[in-house]
Specification:
The protein has 98 residues and is mainly beta. The protein has a single domain, classed as OB fold (Dihydrolipoamide Acetyltransferase, E2P), CATH 2.40.50. Helix content is 4%, strand content 51%. The protein has 1 helix and 9 strands; from the N terminus they run βββββαββββ. Strands 5-4-1-6-9 form a 5-stranded antiparallel sheet, with no helix packed on it. A hairpin with a 2-residue loop joins strand 7 and strand 8. The termini are close together. The relative contact order is 0.29.
Length: 98
């Protein structure tokens, strides 16, 4: 995935109805462009859980590229994830594309 790294943050921690904690993961926000069938471009903001936040923090505000995994969760639903051990690189002259 290639896009502008807009933000690095930790999601808030909460407690569900069963008393179990949830949240608290480190996340990144990537802004990229998706080419539509009609030739137009749509900007999308994607939040991804990040296991190695220290590798991403120095690149905040820059265009980066990094590997992602893709899973189909249901009909028409796609989930993107950053594989463990994946490291970002500066995108160079590449535009932000998903």
């Amino acid at each position: 995935m290639t896009g502008q790294l807009l933000n690095v943050f930790k999601s808030p921690v909460g407690v569900n109805g069963e008393g179990k904690e949830f949240g608290g993961q480190h996340k990144i926000q990537i802004l990229g462009a998706v080419s539509l069938q009609n030739g137009e471009t749509q900007n999308k903001l994607v939040d991804l859980t990040c296991h190695d936040v220290a590798a991403f923090e120095p690149h905040q505000g820059k265009s980066v590229t990094f590997p992602v995994g893709v899973m189909a969760q249901g009909k028409g639903q796609v989930i993107y994830y950053i594989p463990k051990g994946a490291k970002p690189e500066l995108a160079g002259g590449l535009g932000a594309k998903f």
